[in-house]
Amino acid sequence: MSVIGIVAEYNPFHLGHALHIGKTRRALGMDAPVVCVMTGDFVQRGAPALMSKHARAEAAVRSGVSLVLELPLAWSLSSAEGFARGAVGLLAATGVVDTVSFGSEAGQLPPLQALAAALDDPETDAAVVQELQRGDGYAAARERALARSLGAAAARQIGRPNNILAVEYLRAMKVYPKLQPFTLMREGAGHDEAGDAASALRSASDLRAACLSGTDISAWLTPESAAVLRRERQAGRAPMGDAALEIALLSRLRMLPRETFSTLPDASEGLGDRLYRAVQTQPGLEQTLAAAKSRRYALARLRRMCLCAALGVRRGDAAGTPPYLRVLAADEAGQRLLHQMRKRAFLPVVTKPAAVRRLDGPAQRAFGTGAAARDLYCLGWTPAERTPGSDWRETPFLLSMCRDKDKN
User: Fold this and answer.
1) First and final CA of the chain: distance in angstroms?
2) How many CA atoms lie within 13 A of 153 on its CB side?
3) I want to staple 356 with a disulfide (CB 3.0 to 4.6 A). Which of 15, 237, 367, 393 is the partner?
4) Chain centroid, CA 107 distance in Å
């Protein structure tokens, strides 16, 4: 029986995610457990998640995922390459996952594998450098460089959001020959498209915007995910958006010295200084981002840099693979996998946060940075919920199917 690995944010867990899991299981085995590596309280686009990582992990397990592991903060806030390298590395480190399933606009492996191979070719790197001299951003330069070897039609595939990550997953998997890729055609609205409100499948970004505006999005979530969102909303812990943390984030950024911005991930070509000047002259976060942005730099990159500055993530923190496997949630099948992982995993398995204090320095720093991020994240909650240090106290959500049968 296969053990399926998935990389996700589940922000929030919606019907499209459930469809992906169901189709993967139909192809690989209906009883196949699913191990998900999921981002924490802040997600890859450089923003707070709609719900906390613990709530999202619970929603995922209640909706069919077997085991949820956290992708630590530095990797969650990385570019697509670092994000994929960290997540795939964790799936491989479990010692139990054998197949990595991901959605893509291509819907099949050969064109994605061709793109991955081309990006690993040194000649492509040289071509990208040449194209960058024209003044466009990296994404446009990369597409033109790929067109030289693959043709314009094939190269255009790298511009689709899910294809971008799919290609990076394939590149990361090359050092883990025991992991096999599996892709499915993405269905419904595109990654950042508004889509049709009448459709059963809407994008996560569309659902987040609707939720933050006060719209009930339960119809597009699994019943279990909708129940968790209702509970978190009633407790004053959701939904979370940029506005909830803007003042806290700006206050941190404005106190940082110029040197901090020069040591950030992606702070090349003077971008760190550019962002520092924007922080010191602009009244709000959106104005800061607009002042620092140019045709060459993607907005998501600047958002990630702002969070990295505020949360203490430095250049090089996301090098290699994360140093531990932190469990956020598991059902009974996931708990059986955990027993196997105790013997087969290549990294320490963390179920109790206090156990991190017995690990080495890099592991303690990675966990401590994530715990500090939680302390910032919870400032967007209702005042009674803002007690600091919660990430050092919160243990995994464990779902017992017999005990929770009536609740579901």
Assistant:
1) 27
2) 2
3) 367
4) 21
Work out whether the CA dihedral 111, 115, 120, 126 comes out positive or negative.
Answer: positive
pLDDT tens-digit readout, 347-373:
999 999 999 999 999 999 999 999 999
3-state secondary structure of 202: coil
C-alpha distance from residue 322 to each of 75, 221, 332, 347, 397 (Å)? 8, 30, 25, 9, 22
Q: Is the separation of the CB atoms in 183 and 157 below 8 Å?
A: no
* Positive/negative CA dihedral, 201, 207, 213, 216: positive
Nearest Cα to 72, choosing from 256, 308, 301, 267? 308
Separation of alpha carbons 397 and 408, rounded Å: 15
- Give the tens place of pLDDT for each residue, 218-270: 999 999 999 999 999 999 999 999 999 999 999 999 999 999 999 999 898 89
Q: CA-to-CA distance for 10 and 63, rounded, in angstroms?
A: 11
Measured CA to CA, the distance from residue 95 to residue 343 in angstroms comes to: 9
Q: Is the pLDDT of residue 317 over 90?
A: yes
Longest CA–CA span in the chain (Å) reads: 62
